[in-house]
Write a structure and sequence with these properties.
The complex is a heterodimer of chains A (about 400) and B (about 120).
Chain A: H1 3-26, H2 31-51, H3 58-76, H4 78-84, H5 87-93, H6 104-118, H7 125-136, H8 141-148, H9 152-168, H10 181-201, H11 207-226, H12 233-246, H13 272-285, H14 293-304, H15 310-326, H16 330-344, H17 346-355, H18 362-372, H19 377-390, H20 394-408
Helix pairs in contact in A: 1-2, 1-3, 1-6, 2-3, 6-7, 7-9, 7-10, 8-9, 10-11, 10-12, 11-12, 12-13, 12-14, 13-14, 14-15, 15-16, 16-17, 16-18, 17-18, 18-19, 19-20
Chain B: E1 2-10, H1 20-38, E2 43-48, E3 54-57, E4 61-64, E5 73-82, H2 85-92, E6 103-108
Antiparallel strand pairs in B: 1-5, 1-6, 2-5, 3-4
The chains are: A mainly alpha (about 400), B alpha+beta (about 120).
Chain lengths: ~400, ~120
């Protein structure tokens, strides 16, 4: 690895932890100071390591440098800081500023508290995602913009508002009260779930960013599973879902970026290792009495990783039946209808599909086109054309255009 | 969109002992029907009732089982969303209880807005 690769991999691994540690010192209301010190530290690392050589323990170097910068900052800005945050005064007189040891379990603790803070119900879902990418995943604003297909200005504004809310809502870096952990964890899991889906279903042309989003969601999920206070069955179910879905990341896109349908994927490109890991998490999730939607989605994803058709689709159909009873969503309804088609046949699925009211959803028309295949060529074509009119995603549009072309040939 | 309750009533046949496969097929029929309604975003909730019960009457009279005097029992209910009775009835027509010789009672809810 070159220095810049080393720096970038350490940055990815340590940025969010360092921010969390710094915020535990400065308070969440001074998150911008924490961000400045963290950026300065990594900048200093990159300059120093390019000039000299990369130190033996780069992570320790980062923490030592950050510690010095923090000490300098505190000396320089003491009066100003005390005005902003009176808590700092007492802390400063005590020991922390000189005895800042890098302690793995404390860092992990800070990091988990940071996850809870970022995924606070006071912050809107949309802002949580951007804030999570910035603070928990160390993404730059332009990377976030690229991942979420927004302009950089939008992201800047969103982050600005989210950080303002952190201050105004007086959100603290702390563990939620014991009786609140379950409820707060639900918000955290929703955010991780959305973060993963942003990566998995994103239309972003940048393949690496999409993959990073999936990996980052998994990393944050693992942190929750490693800590006894947050290691609940549904956390493991969510991780199982992430693993099963990610196992097909390489198989669902051709080398020139075209989308490949599940049924056309090369099974050899599925990542067996991730499938096995998913099974481990799925087993760990099968305790307790509550069946969450993550359990059902993980089970559906599990069956998608299996061979053989008849048993598979019947199981997937039944899981979708249950999932829809817990929570309706248009995409679940469409997926369920596809499973119905594979399990019970085209006729029954078509009848059901025609009762679903999703006229404005391009995937609905793709599904109808699929169901009219071999039955009614004209309708198949007209639904593909409707889908094309409605679809905004570039990759999906290319796919639909190709399907229409096939029918015309 | 209003809510309607579908009540499933049938006369139980104590001699019918379904095999595991028959049970499985029966569950599938019900779940596919419920899933169909849920995939239209019209499902609210459902519950199956067991075959046991107690009958309570005035004068402290309690008896076992709801079938002492009625042949027909209620096997469960489902609450759905529908625009009107016509739509609710249309949905009820797919209920598997009909294949077992039972019937579905479709009922409208009385609005008790002051309780909200």
């Amino acid at each position: 690895m070159t220095e810049s690769q080393i720096i970038s991999s350490i940055y990815k691994a340590e940025y969010s932890k360092l921010i969390s540690v710094l915020c535990s010192i400065f308070g969440l209301s001074n998150i911008e100071i924490a961000e400045d010190i963290a950026s300065d530290t990594f900048l200093a690392a990159s300059e120093s390591w390019k000039k000299k050589e990369v130190p033996e323990n780069p992570t320790a170097w980062i923490y030592a440098a950050a510690k010095n910068k923090t000490r300098d900052y505190l000396k320089r800005e003491k009066i100003k800081l005390e005005k902003i945050n009176p808590e700092l005064k007492s802390k400063q007189n005590n020991s922390y500023s000189l005895e800042w040891e890098v302690n793995e379990s404390e860092i992990e603790d800070n990091m988990l508290q940071m996850i809870f803070a970022v995924c606070h119900p006071a912050i809107s879902q949309e802002s949580q995602i951007s804030l999570a990418l910035r603070i928990l995943c160390g993404f730059g604003n332009d990377e976030i913009a690229s991942a979420l297909l927004c302009s950089k200005e939008t992201i800047n504004k969103r982050l600005y508002r989210a950080k303002k809310l952190l201050v105004e809502s007086q959100i603290k870096l702390e563990w939620p009260a014991k009786e609140e952990v379950q409820k707060r964890l639900d918000t955290v899991l929703t955010t991780l779930y959305l973060l993963f889906n942003e990566g998995y279903y994103s239309a972003s042309p940048d393949k690496n960013i999409r993959r990073d989003l999936c990996l980052e969601s998994m990393r944050l999920g693992l942190l929750l599973a490693h800590n006894p206070s947050t290691n609940f069955p549904r956390v493991n179910a969510l991780l199982a879902l992430f693993c099963f879905q990610s196992s097909r990341l390489m198989a669902r896109e051709s080398s020139n970026g075209d989308y490949i349908l599940y049924k056309d994927q090369d099974r050899n490109l599925w990542d067996e290792n991730l499938i096995n890991k998913g099974e481990i998490f799925l087993n760990r999730s099968s305790t307790g009495e509550k069946l969450s939607k993550y359990h059902l989605e993980a089970a559906i994803a599990f069956w998608h990783c299996q061979d053989g058709d008849s048993e598979k689709w019947e199981n997937i159909l039944q899981l979708y039946n249950y999932l829809l009873q817990i929570e309706y969503s248009p995409i679940t309804a469409l997926n369920r209808t596809y499973a119905l088609y594979r399990a019970n046949g085209r006729d029954e699925a078509l009848q059901t599909a025609l009762k679903i009211d999703l006229e404005k959803n391009h995937l609905y028309h793709c599904l109808l086109a699929e169901l009219y295949q071999t039955k009614n060529l004209e309708k198949q074509k007209s639904h593909l054309q409707k889908a094309l009119q409605l679809c905004k995603n570039k990759n999906e549009r290319a796919f639909i255009e190709k399907e229409i072309q096939k029918l015309e040939d | 969109m209003k809510e309607f309750m579908l009540l499933f009533r049938s006369v139980p046949n104590p001699d019918f002992k379904p095999t595991a496969d028959q049970m499985q097929a029966e569950i599938k029929k019900w779940q596919d029907w419920i899933g169909d309604i849920a995939s239209q975003g019209k499902f609210v909730s459902t519950n199956q009732l067991t075959r046991t019960g107690r009958l309570v009457k005035a004068g402290n009279i309690v008896s076992d089982g709801p079938y002492a005097e009625v042949k027909e029992i209620m096997g469960g209910y489902m609450i759905i969303k529908a625009a009107d009775y016509d739509e609710a009835v249309e949905k009820a027509k797919g209920c598997p209880v009909l294949d077992m010789g039972g019937h579905v009672e479709v009922r409208d809810f009385m609005k008790l807005d002051h309780l909200d």
